[in-house]
Please model this.
Amino acid sequence: MKKNKQWFRARERNWGWYPESWQAWMIIMIWVIVLAGVTAALNLRFDFGWLASVLSIIFGFTSFGILVMIAQKTSGRADNSVVDNDRFDSK
Model:
């Protein structure tokens, strides 16, 4: 069975992922474009009022959560813990 290529690579330290393929870059570009479009549409619809700001923030956090789930599912690792804990042990 052919192993799927990882779209994102998990960081070795801390938390997060790096884009590793063109698919990952495409997901990030689509996310930025959709986020900017929804924010602009909300601002035009609600005349740049406070409601547009609140809805934009809610949409931003929600869409970022979806982006994180995509990165986690396509990184090839079950968790995002530190790879080599022995490096941090004092001897």
